[in-house]
Every structure is written in C-alpha cells, then in structure tokens.
Amino acid sequence: MNQSNDWEELIDRHLHGELEESGKERLAELLDTNAAARQQFVEQVQWDTEFAEAVRESDQVDQDAGVLAAIRADTDHQLSSKPAFLRLMLAVAATIIVVLSAGLIYQLASPESELADAGKLTTERPVSESIARITGLSGSLIWTGDRGQIVRDVKVGMELAGGTIEGMAPDSWFELQFKDGSAVMISGTSMLTFSDLGQKELRLKVGIFSANVVPQPAGKPMLIHTPSTLLKVLGTQFDVEASQASTMLTVAEGEVRVRRLSDGREVDVPARHRVIAEGGGDLTAQLVPESVDHWKSQLQLRPGSYGKWLPATEQRAAAQKAIPLVPPENPDTTLYLLGIPVSRTDGPPVVVRSDSKFVVRGRLNKPASVYFGIAVSDASNEFAGKFRGDLTNKQPLSQPDEDGRFEVVYQVSDFSLDPCVRDRKEELATTPHDLVLNGIWVFTHTDTPSGLEVSEVELIPTSQPIQGTR
Predict the structure, then answer these.
(1) At what angle do helices 83-109 and 21-33 cross, to 10 degrees?
(2) Contacts of 36 by beta carbon, 8 Å cutoff, 6+ apart
(3) Which one, of 99, 100, 91, 101, lies nearest residue 71 by Cα?
(4) How wide is the angle at C-alpha 413 spanned by C-alphas 410 and 419, nearest 5°?
(5) Alpha-carbon distances, residue 151 vs 141, 160, 176, 178, 201 (angstroms)
(6) Residue 431 contacts residue 387 (beta carbons within 8 Å)
(7) Helix 83-109 and helix 35-49, axial crossing angle in degrees, nearest 10
C-alpha cells in the first residue's frame, strides 16, 4: 500500500468509526506532521459529509452538524495528549462551518450572481451591517428588511442593510445612497430589492428606476436584474423602465451592458442611447429621439400604473379607475387615486413647456374637485420634483354632464411644488418648465367614493387648440 492509499484508508475508517486505537494514534501523527495528509483529510471530510449538498438544500444542515459532532466525539480521548491534533480538528470544523454559512448567505442573497462565489463571501461584511442611507422620499412606501421586517414609517437618514423598497402609489418616490456615493432612485409604483455583499446587486421587479453610479471596483460591476434583462454597470447615469414583458434602458452618461435573458444576447449601450429588450425582437442601441411637447395617454392600449383598468367597450372608451388610498401620514383620510405613467418605450421624451396645459377627461358619479399632479426629471434623468396643478388656484368642483363625463384644464404656468417634497425645495426645480414628464396622478378627496375614472390625459402646447371636448 503506498503512502497516499494509506492516508485514504486511515481517514475513511476514522470517519466511519472503524479505526482502532493504534490507527487513531497513527492518523494523529500523520496530520500533525504531514501537510499533504492534512489536505487529504480536509478534502475527504468535505466529500464524505456532502457539505456541497448542504449549501443547496437547507434540510441537510442538521445531518451535517451531526457528522461534525461525531468527529469531535470520536477524537475527544486524544485531545489532551495531542494539542496539535486538537488545533487541526478545530480548524477543520471551523473552516467547514464558515464555508457552509457563506454558501447559505450567498444562496439567499444572490441566487443568480455570475461574478461572486461562496468562498469569496467569507471575507465580506455581515448582512446586518448598513450598506446605504435613505437620502430622499415622499409618498407611500414600504421597506421590507432583515428577516422579513416590514417598516412603513421610513424616514430620510435611515441606514439600511439591504432589503426591498416598494412605492405604493403613483406619487411615491425614494432615493438611496450607497457607501461609495452611488445613488439609486425609484418613482411611482415600483419595487426594488438591493444588496451589497462586496458587489452591489439590485432587482427591479417593476417600475421606474434611475441611478448615478460612481466607478465600481474592477471585476465587480453593479448588477441590476429585471424580469427580462441583466444590466452590468461600471459607472454611469441611466434610467430603467421595467415590466414583466419588457425593459427599456436609457443611458445619459457612460455605458451599460445589457443581456437579454430569453436568448443571452448582449449589447453595450453608450451615452445618449437607449435599448428596449422584449421578446425576441431587435436589441440594437438607438439614439434617444428628440423630445416632443405634445403627449396623449394611450389607455386603450395598456393600463395605467395605479388603479383599476377598464378596457374599452362599444359604449365607452378605456379608462383608469381610482381606488382608495389611505396616506400613512394621515390615516384618517381616504383619497381616491389613479396614476398613469408617461412611458418612453413607445415614443420620445415628453417635455413640459411653460405655456402648455394639461387636459383631463373622464367620469364622475357626482360633482367633485379633481386634483392633479405630475413627476418630472431633468435631461440627465435625475429626479427634478413633483408638482401640483391645483394648489395656486383652489380647484373648483368639476360638474359631470348627464352621462357623468367631465373635463378639466390645468395651466402649466399655475403649477407649484408638491407639499410632499417642499423640504427639498433647495435641491429641486422651482417649476416643471422644460423638464421631462415621467408620470401623472389624479385623485379626489371626498367622504364617499366619487366614481373617478380618467379616460384621457393630454399635454397640449398653447399654440394647439383643445380638441375632443364634450
């Protein structure tokens, strides 16, 4: 029997409880004096106890812990006379436990990561340590953190150790800054999961997301998952609009690599370009088209972002119906709210001009004040503010006709900063003039449901007459 086979037999018999006392003494001496034997022992322990399987299936953890306990019990009588052997056994057990723990953390926090492995994570920060700080928010938001902790009362300045943030209404907005200065933001009804275990990894399930990312460490780009793509970011400014069916990426500065999950195709998107990833269609980066100042909602083609979508019938046009919302800061108030995004997946950026107007058409069950708000960004896709069209001049009651239809006009020159972001007025635009329209929301504030439905919202330059009025 050669030396290697002798080691293997001794180790195998020891792990199966078949090694006599003289054999145990011999194995102890080998492990104490021979580095190659120690390596063989570690490899055999890892194989024999199937720790790789334990990483994948948590129900094996107790079984593996039992194997470790058996190893310790079987060698207890040697520990007082073999201190070097004791150190080795403790080191091996500790190594195996660390590998197991790191693998489980990796599996739970980053199941699809391509650029990290469980072994590397043993040196990363604990998952409970803060990785980012909230730098701005408004509207209804929910953060789900460690161990499923749900927090509705999120505040600026809170330190977060990862988790999921949800914008619960069309006027919701949330900004997060990582330790290295990279900032990310969601707006409207969006859901974002974020983590940083040595490499930033985010998952945008749905909604509108933008980021200003500082240069990332070599080999560790920021990873952003959407239902249809994987984005790799080294350092840039960009925004993403994601749904279950498609992802649109628009890059303002730098470059972002996009991989479409359905077929693995990749494309690098440079500054002032965008790409739309959906199905098996074209994945070529295109120049961002020139902006327009006329826009009309397309509810006959797709639902809004918040509320109940009512498809068109022979009798009436498609519409978005308001649903109840109780603001977390005012639990005694019920609003009837709906939201409509201004998507760029099917058109150019829409710019709000100072002399333009918004026309809102829909239905009401009874006369009510119809309140109207918009969210805008600047040319670099940075959040620029939320504005209301009903604050400067108190909104009068809208009077529906005999069929319940109403129409109300809001002049952009009358818009003012929404109260929910006035605490940041020094950082935001003072007016929405010449900024990019991201979304609108409409609501009523009545004691009982008003039956608010919106069939169309139109942004019209002053030079163009209003058409399609009732």
Answers:
(1) 70
(2) 7
(3) 91
(4) 80
(5) 9, 11, 16, 20, 22
(6) yes
(7) 40
- φ/ψ (deg, to 5) at 113: -65, 135
Structure tokens at 349: 């950026």
The residues, any chain, with a CB within 8 Å of residue 94's CB and separated by 6 or more, are none
pLDDT tens sequence across 193-218: 999 999 999 999 999 899 999 999 99
Nearest alpha carbon to residue 454 among 352, 355, 339, 356: 339
Mean pLDDT for 419-427 is 86
Instruction: Note the CATH number of domain 128-287.
Output: 2.60.120.1440
User: Cα–Cα distance between 55 and 105 in angstroms, integer?
Assistant: 9
Query: Parallel, antiparallel, or unpaired: how do β-strands 222-225 and 200-213 relate?
Result: parallel
Domain boundaries, the chain: 3-122, 128-287, 295-460
Report the C-alpha gap between 336 and 322 in whole angstroms.
5
CATH architecture type of domain 295-460: Sandwich (2.60)
Read off the tokens for 80.
């007082």
Q: What is the pTM assigned to this prediction?
A: 0.65
**Single-letter code of the amino acid located at 110:** S
Q: Is 114 left (phi over 0), alpha (psi -120 to 50) or beta?
A: alpha
Label each residue of 160-218 as H, E or C: ECCEEEEECCCCCEEEEEECCCCEEEEEEEEEEEEEECCCEEEEEEEEEEEEEECCCCC
